[in-house]
Amino acid sequence: MSKIEVKNLCAEYEDKNGDFQALKDVSFSVGDGEFLSVVGASGCGKTTLLGVLQGIITPSSGSAFIDGLPITGPGTDRAAVFQHYSLFPWMTARDNVAFGIKQAKKGLSKRERHELAHVFLKKVGLSGFGHKYPFQLSGGMQQRAAIARALAMDTDILLMDEPFGAIDAKNRSNMQELLLSLWEGDGDTKKKTVLFVTHDIDEAIYLSDRVIMLGGSPGRVAAEFPVRFPRPRIHSTIRKTGEYGSLRNKLMALFYEENNGLAEEEYTI
Amino acid sequence: MKQAAKRLFIIPNALFIILLLIQLLPDKPYRVADYPQYTVALALALEALLLAGSFLLKKDGARHVFTDVMGVVFAFLIFWVLATIKLDLPGNAKQAVFPPPGAVLQKYTVDYAQTLVNIRDSLVLIFRGYLIAVALAIPLGLFLGWNARVGAAAGYISKFLGSISPIVYIPYAIVLLPTFRAASVFVIVVASFWPTLASTMSGVLNVEKRIVDSAKTLCVGRLTMLFRIILPASLPEIFIGCNQGLTISFILLVSAEMIGARSGLGYYVNNYANFGNYTNALAGVIMIGITVTAITFLFNLLRRFLLRWKQ
């Protein structure tokens, strides 16, 4: 059975121009322990899709399931990392992580939560930064802390909405490597099922087992590509292969084809 | 060396010397006894503070503000001494409405016990009223701001009620409530309640939606959402209303004390003014200024501590 199942999902959101259909008839599934990326241009409904899975947006029709059960609201079986504001600015890095732990795992004492928070901050390379407030951390460090919180919650599923979108290229590739090493799991955590939303095609290929392209407006699944590079993957090695080039070209071509109308609309405003 | 000279040869220091020199001018005949030694003592104390500040404050900006303020204080004292006892300004010498600084300072040395009692009485009333108002307004504002529908109606109602100056309640409160102190507390509660409520509601409405979403994905309960997410997120705006409430409270309390109290800073000023003792009245006026400034300073320390997570 698949971990996440999305069936004929339609969703709308309300903005100042009235109701806007964001997703139309989207269906796909994510296997247990799979790393799936969803790519598409801005405005194709990626964030809405993630909102439905997080349980903060109610679909207008169709449904989404986790372990075969329909999603009715947020749950601590899922942890989320956003591009901005995953962390609460009034809590230190440690308190942010500890807060996530408190929500996901009942019955731990405050001290145990703090100790666990330190363990996970160390995993993301932030030991010694636990007492800092988010504004005292760089964008990359904030995202590391957000990832630490998501991992510390020890959920089966990780939902990520362009988590590295605001990070410079060099740090981004470090973060990607970090994410992959943590996704595999270790003594403290199990292997996660990841749904990763991005508009960066290289990022999607490097990270994923499978890439889904959303396109059009309202968004629908335009295509699906398996990514078969063996793991652990090294950026520089896989980029040199012909397979990488052809996959990237295919995705790029489709990306522009699918998002043509959308892009024109954006630019003519 | 050059650095030290730069910090020493500044206008405030020149004003300090002028303040000392004008003490040597002959006094005009005056009804109120002056005590120039207190003026000199104050000048020396201020100068010590000025020197300490101009050498200890590292940041240029902060140091400049500090020395500028001290300069204004010295200039004001010079003007005060000249206008009251050294020059013959028409009217004043006969009426003694404006006593010289030495006379006012001398009152503090003989009257300090009474002054402290009055400060304490005023502060007790302020804190009671203010804390009741804040303790009511913040939770209510969180609840109303978070529940959009009741909040919208409450917004209009609070705009109407908040627009009525709390001064109009003073006569009613004095008649209706058993003691003057209860009446004062009531007026302070009303005065600081509305701005705190309004700023809390507006703070809640302006909380970044992404922060709320982030909290929702963490499955926070209703109370956790209100007090651990919404409250801190709207705290910067809540403080704006709290600050307004505090300022209004002081203005109202002193006004109320001038009407009907038997103690407090407003009473002190009004009582002495009624007997034509302007030296004590002025001492009270200055003490009101110092008290309010001190409370505002402490309030800002608290705000900076609670908002230390803000850039």
Description:
The complex is a heterodimer of chains A (269) and B (311). Chain A is 39% helix and 25% strand. With 269 residues, chain A is an alpha/beta fold. In chain A, helix 2 packs parallel to helix 4 and helix 3 (110-123) crosses helix 4. Residues 263-269 of chain A have low confidence and may be disordered. With 311 residues, chain B is mainly α. Chain B has helices at residues 2-8, 11-21, 36-56, 60-86, 92-95, 101-146, 148-162, 169-176, 180-205, 209-217, 222-260, 265-274, 278-306. The chains are: A alpha/beta (269), B mainly alpha (311). Chains A and B meet through strand 6 and helix 2 of A and helix 10 and helix 11 of B.
What are the SSEs and their pairings?
The complex is a heterodimer of chains A (269) and B (311).
Chain A: E1 4-15, E2 18-30, E3 35-39, H1 46-54, E4 61-66, E5 69-70, E6 78-81, H2 93-104, H3 110-123, H4 139-152, E7 157-161, H5 169-183, E8 193-198, H6 201-207, E9 210-215, E10 220-226, H7 235-240, H8 242-268
Parallel strand pairs in A: 3-8, 3-9, 6-7, 7-8
Antiparallel strand pairs in A: 1-2, 1-4, 4-5, 9-10
Helix pairs in contact in A: 2-3, 2-4, 3-4, 4-5
Chain B: H1 2-8, H2 11-21, H3 36-56, H4 60-86, H5 92-95, H6 101-146, H7 148-162, H8 169-176, H9 180-205, H10 209-217, H11 222-260, H12 265-274, H13 278-306
Helix pairs in contact in B: 2-3, 2-4, 3-4, 3-6, 6-7, 6-9, 6-11, 6-12, 6-13, 7-9, 8-9, 9-11, 10-11, 11-12, 11-13, 12-13
Offer a few descriptive terms.
heterodimer; A: 269 residues; alpha/beta; Rossmann fold; 2 domains; six-stranded mixed sheet; four-stranded antiparallel sheet; 8 helices; 39% helix; disordered C terminus; B: 311 residues; mainly alpha; MetI-like fold; 13 helices; 81% helix; flat
* CATH level 1 class label of the largest domain in chain B: Mainly Alpha
- What global shape of chain B is seen? flat
Radius of gyration of chain A: 19 Å
Average pLDDT level of chain B:
90
Question: What percent strand of chain A?
Answer: 15-25%
Question: Based on the structure given, which CATH architecture of the largest domain in chain B is correct?
Answer: Orthogonal Bundle
According to CATH, what is the class of the largest domain in chain A? Alpha Beta
Portion of residues in beta strands of chain B equals: under 5%
Query: What's the β-strand tally of chain B?
Result: 0
